[in-house]
Amino acid sequence: xxxxxxxxxxxxxxxxxxxxxxxxxxxxxxxxxxxxxxxxxxxxxxxxxxxxxxxxxxxxxxxxxxxxxxxxxxxxxxxxxxxxxxxxxxxxxxxxxxxxxxxxxxxxxxxxxxxxxxxxxxxxxxxxxxxxxxxxxxxxxxxxxxxxxxxxxxxxxxxxxxxxxxxxxxxxxxxxxxxxxxxxxxxxxxxxxxxxxxxxxxxxxxxxxxxxxxxxxxxxxxxxxxxxxxxxxxxxxxxxxxxxxxxxxxxxxxxxxxxxxxxxxxxxxxxxxxxxxxxxxxxxxxxxx
Length: 289
Prior knowledge:
This protein is mainly alpha-helical. It contains 14 helices and no strands.
């Protein structure tokens, strides 16, 4: 390796690091602003002189966080609804996706290829195209407004089998010889799946659960449509959006920031703790099935 090459490589690495630092600062700037604003105690009598005054509070306070839990709003109810919907959808969707993916990976039956292609094409259409149809269908069963929480769980779980792509790819990497050996010893397919395949599939299980958890946790479109007009059935995203629609925009904006920080904490902790398995699940499932 020549001296000039080392110099060029060092310069290239330095430029790359500088660019990455700049991009990171730009990417993190809105989040830092939200955190700082969540600690601002808004006073309508105070005049703000410029951007710095708006961004950095002169006096830090927990008033916005107290407001969320002092009974003036239903924030605790909204947060509970979000947790119930997200965990139920994550658990049920993970079970369904794992079962469907294992069946498509290990079993050969008539129409298997057609079914996989049909689901692939069907998944290209955005879900919100069916909102009107779903709303009237759920309304017939009392799963809108006051019954929006079980309705949103049903919507999140109903089509989960179509998300088999990554999970099936991961199962394809597990040698089928293990299944065949267990079957020769008398094990049923259910036992092979539960006692052999799943213990070796921890990364893809965590990946599937995280993806399933994220969708209802951040859902606004379906949640606002199905729970429309019933305050106690809102999730956090819908309820806090209505805060910034009020005439008191500046007063509720800081409360909106505080609520948003509390919503972001569980997801951030989950990804930080399970990042290793999340990456392994994505890379392990990115194979041709």
